[in-house]
Amino acid sequence: MTSNKPYKVTPVFSEVTLPAALRNAHSTKAGVWGVIRVLEGRLDYVIEETGKLHLLDPHTPGLVLPQEAHRVEPVGAMKMRVEFHHAFPSDFAAAT
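Predicted structure:
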């Protein structure tokens, strides 16, 4: 059974400290899944290829597929972090 634990977690970012690299289009490497966890407030998560916008909040995490270009933008005051996994995070569905 694959562990649900991420192999890496970013620091907590706020609307002020969110790096420009995350606000602009970027992607994970092959085989790397991400989970965007909003701890407070709201965050727009945009999939670049489709332009689809997901509004994330503490009850709605965002799933980042390997190599899928995306960007995020705070919607007012917020706190968030990103978890990185080597496989689909099997606890993701339970968290949504």
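Summary: The chain has a mean pLDDT of 92.
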